[in-house]
Every structure is written in structure tokens, then in C-alpha cells.
Write a sequence for this structure.
């Protein structure tokens, strides 16, 4: 008990000091606000003196009202400049969007023109495909032809009555065109397979000209003709090709095997090639022979050169086609025309 009693005067002194400091701070804060209030409450007289003999206008106010007015005016001016800047920025953005809109419209017009050109090309494609299918015997009753004809009437691409509301005509056209082209893929693939399967046939029969020079021409056709030396009528059993010179290459018009390499007084240097399907071809009046008997040759392979050997009136190639024991007109087996 004696120990506790010893510290009590010290606690009382600490409490008294705290209250004294807090009270002083509170009084100082109060005096500060009172002085500020008195400062803002100071009276001011504002006089407006006209240059003319008019009445002087004066009114009283205080510092607080003046400061408040200045703040308000500054806020209004700042707001004016801020919103004016926003208006200028918005105008620039509007101008930019208008320019982009004009460019978009121009691009859309160009797209419409290209879309129209595409539709015209598709119509020509349809006509060509229909004609090709007809030539190949794939009429409308064939499953493949039905796939090509299905939705192939491109007049529907220009029919606006069946278009959904709100869809651009160009979009609808492109969708219908896509459908048409999808349906055209099957017959085109079938044609490709057919051509691929026939490719060997085209290389196994004499289907191209044996002379490929640019100035090559037919100097004498197959059939009845007047012999250029005897002057009498006779049957010309082949076609004569001329380039007005010797030395131009002669090529094999089809795959085959060389069965004869020889010379006689009439034909000069000559070669006979055996092809599939009992077809034989003969080449006469050659200046040079570049194949041997028994040799296998491929289509477009050079077998010799045009010459002037045998009975001739000038350098040329005499070309014959035999099927079995019959001599036929070579022109019937050639699928590429040569300018006369």
C-alpha cells in the first residue's frame, strides 16, 4: 500500500499537463478560425465610375464573396476552354469518320462492279461447262450432269424477290454463286478423271503433227492429185509437210516401236513406226534418220530430219497412216490444226 501511494502525485501531474496542452491547442485552433472568419468577413466597397456623367454605382461585399466569385469565374472559364477543346476534337473525329465513310462507299461501289463482273464470268463458265458436258455426252439425265445443272441457272442470281430482308444483294449473289460453284466441282473432277484416263490414248495414236516448225505447212493433201513429175492423176496416200528447207526435225506423233528403217529410190530414206491398235505411220524423203529398227520411241521424240531424198521436187516430209492393211487420211487422227 505504501508503494502505490508513492506514485499518485506523479500521475496527477501528467494528467494536468496533458489537459493544459490540449486546451492550449484547442484555443489556438479556435483563434485561427476566428481570425480567418474575420479576414473573410472584412467589408469591401466596389465602385463603378462611368466615363460619362452617369451615376456612380457602388456596392458593399466581403472578401469571402470576392474570392468565391473569382473561383466561380475561373471555373466557368476553365470549363469553357475544356469543352471547347472537346468540341474541336469531336469535329476532327467527325471529319475523319466522314472521310472514312466516303472511302468505304467508294470501295463498296468497286466491290459491286467486281461482283457484277464475277457474275458475268460465271454465266460464261456455265455456258462453257454445259457445252462441254454435252460434247462428252453427259446430258441432264446423267447424275454428274444433274449435279452441274442443279442451281446452275444463274438467272436466279439476279432475282431479288427471294432474298431475305436486310441482306445486301451482293451478299446474296455471292452466296448463290458459291453454291453453284460447289455443285460444279463434281462434274469438273469427273471430266479431269476422264481426260486423265484418255491421256494414254492420245499418246498411243498419231494425234499430233509430225512437223512442229512454225513455218510448216501442208504442201499436198491426201487423196487424188496430179503427180508433180509425171503430170498424171494418182492417189496420194499421205500428206506432204514442207518448211521450204531441209534439216527441220521430224517427231513421232505417238508412242510406238520402229519396225523399218530403210531406203528406196522412190521414198528415199524412210522409217515405219508401229503403234497400238494396229496403227502404222511412215515417214519418207528424210535427210537424216535418228532411230534404229526395234527402238521404242515416245510421242514428240525426234526420229529424223526433213530432206530431199528419193523422188521429190524439193525438201519435204511424206507422212502416211495405215490401220491394218488400209491407208487412211492422217488428217482424221490429228487433233491440232496446222495453219495452211
Amino acid at each position: 500500500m505504501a508503494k502505490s501511494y508513492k506514485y499518485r502525485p506523479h500521475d496527477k501531474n501528467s494528467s494536468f499537463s496533458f489537459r493544459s496542452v490540449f486546451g492550449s491547442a484547442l484555443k489556438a485552433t479556435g483563434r485561427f478560425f476566428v481570425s480567418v472568419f474575420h479576414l473573410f468577413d472584412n467589408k469591401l466597397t466596389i465602385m463603378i465610375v462611368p466615363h460619362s456623367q452617369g451615376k456612380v454605382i457602388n456596392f458593399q461585399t466581403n472578401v469571402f464573396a470576392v474570392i468565391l466569385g473569382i473561383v466561380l469565374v475561373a471555373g466557368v472559364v476553365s470549363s469553357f476552354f475544356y469543352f471547347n477543346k472537346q468540341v474541336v476534337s469531336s469535329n476532327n473525329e467527325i471529319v475523319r469518320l466522314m472521310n472514312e465513310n466516303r472511302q468505304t462507299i467508294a470501295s463498296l461501289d468497286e466491290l459491286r462492279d467486281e461482283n457484277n463482273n464475277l457474275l458475268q464470268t460465271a454465266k460464261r463458265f456455265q455456258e462453257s461447262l454445259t457445252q462441254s458436258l454435252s460434247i462428252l455426252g453427259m446430258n441432264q439425265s446423267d447424275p454428274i450432269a444433274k449435279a452441274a445443272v442443279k442451281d446452275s441457272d444463274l438467272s436466279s442470281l439476279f432475282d431479288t424477290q427471294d432474298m431475305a430482308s436486310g441482306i445486301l444483294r451482293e451478299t446474296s449473289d455471292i452466296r448463290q454463286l458459291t453454291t453453284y460453284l460447289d455443285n460444279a466441282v463434281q462434274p469438273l473432277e469427273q471430266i479431269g478423271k476422264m481426260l486423265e484416263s484418255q491421256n494414254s490414248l492420245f499418246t498411243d495414236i498419231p494425234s499430233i503433227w509430225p512437223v512442229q516448225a512454225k513455218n510448216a505447212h501442208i504442201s499436198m493433201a491426201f487423196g487424188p492429185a496430179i503427180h508433180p513429175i509425171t503430170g498424171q492423176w494418182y492417189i496420194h496416200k499421205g500428206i506432204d509437210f514442207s518448211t521450204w528447207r531441209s534439216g527441220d526435225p521430224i517427231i513421232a506423233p505417238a508412242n510406238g516401236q520402229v519396225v523399218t528403217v530403210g531406203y528406196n529410190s522412190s521414198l528415199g530414206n524412210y522409217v515405219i513406226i508401229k503403234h497400238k491398235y494396229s496403227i502404222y505411220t511412215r515417214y519418207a524423203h528424210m535427210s537424216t534418220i535418228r532411230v534404229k529398227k526395234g527402238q521404242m520411241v515416245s510421242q514428240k521424240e525426234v526420229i529424223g530430219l526433213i530432206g530431199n531424198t528419193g523422188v521429190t521436187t524439193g525438201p519435204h516430209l511424206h507422212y502416211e497412216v495405215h490401220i491394218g492393211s488400209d491407208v487412211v487420211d492422217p488428217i482424221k487422227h490429228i487433233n491440232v490444226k496446222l495453219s495452211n
About this structure: The chain has four helices and 14 strands. The first helix runs from residue 2 to 40.
